[in-house]
Amino acid sequence: MTAPTGRRRPAYDAASLLTVAVAEFNTRGYDATSMEDLSRAAGITKSSFYHHVSGKEELLKAALTRALDGLFGILSEPESLSGPALDRLRHIIYRQVEVLQSELPYVTLLLRVRGNTETERWALARRRAFDASIASLVAEAVADGEVRAGVEPSLAARLLSGTVNSISEWYRPGRPGSDALPGEVVRIVGEGIIPPA
Amino acid sequence: MTAPTGRRRPAYDAASLLTVAVAEFNTRGYDATSMEDLSRAAGITKSSFYHHVSGKEELLKAALTRALDGLFGILSEPESLSGPALDRLRHIIYRQVEVLQSELPYVTLLLRVRGNTETERWALARRRAFDASIASLVAEAVADGEVRAGVEPSLAARLLSGTVNSISEWYRPGRPGSDALPGEVVRIVGEGIIPPA
């Protein structure tokens, strides 16, 4: 991540502390990360750290908000709001992959939330609301005859988000093929991952 | 899980402690779970707990071994070893979903491993070896002309395991449709999650 190295104490602000904190949360897990761990990773004292933030839950909330804003932002894009349901779905999936790529640490953290704190339960509820929007679009596409009959909307929505979200487990920025990934994912959700010849 | 309730101290053995421990690891995260947490969840003293196991890493190793044995067992089934590559792939995916369903807490734990301890790094290496077998089968299916040309084997293998593994996030035993799930997943990896009509 962007944690500075070297001897001089860096001039930290809330944004750079967030970057450091998200990296720690993703490495250790949120529950296992202490304010001591965060101050050590940032290279500042615990009291300096508390000068910037009230505690680790504030950082968690800021990080999850960033991921959720990215995802919910997609739903209000023009291409998500009008046109055939299947085209809207494809647009949303394409953009979900793009948001995952550009906001990788934040989305990764969101996907690992367990629900042990109020902030985590809030984020889980927001994720469920996002998935419900997808399920409702799948249902619309099936009802309109754009998606093959027999596709069960809630299972399809779960597998769609599972497939997209799993990318956070291995994607690293700058890999060859990164630019093609959103389009490739849209292709495979319509044609299959291993379509017969 | 199967943790007994009620007042009498249960007669615990290593197997039931494993069940309790895996549930705790999945709820809190492995790093954040202490031997105190485990003894409390099991309803026995810490010293009784140490009578059965050397520490939490021993329980982690036993749990991950159970998940990995289930998955690697698939690769030596006759249907995984002979026949067209695409048929072998389909069999493996079908069985992966079945193993995930029957060994849900163990597979869930395996999928959440981060690599912070030697045991976790061992499990990650085994997971990578499993995924490499899948990638090699996809490559074979593409080379044999069974899978549409243009499918990139390592991306396909990653998305295959991502799709299957994501089921652990929402699957609960006894849901309606559980029996049909392995077949449904095999269908969607060949035809798409939202195949056009």
UniProtKB/TrEMBL annotation, chains A, B:
SUPFAM superfamilies: Homeodomain-like, Tetracyclin repressor-like, C-terminal domain. It comes from Pseudonocardia oroxyli. The keyword Transcription applies. It comes from the Bacteria. Residues 11-71 form the HTH tetR-type domain. Residues 34-53 bind DNA. PANTHER family: HTH-TYPE TRANSCRIPTIONAL REGULATOR BETI (PTHR30055:SF234), HTH-TYPE TRANSCRIPTIONAL REGULATOR RUTR (PTHR30055). The lineage of its organism: Bacteria, Bacillati, Actinomycetota, Actinomycetes, Pseudonocardiales. Keywords: DNA-binding, Transcription, Transcription regulation. One of its GO terms (molecular function) is transcription cis-regulatory region binding. This is Transcriptional regulator, TetR family. Pfam families: TetR_C_24 (PF17932), TetR_N (PF00440).
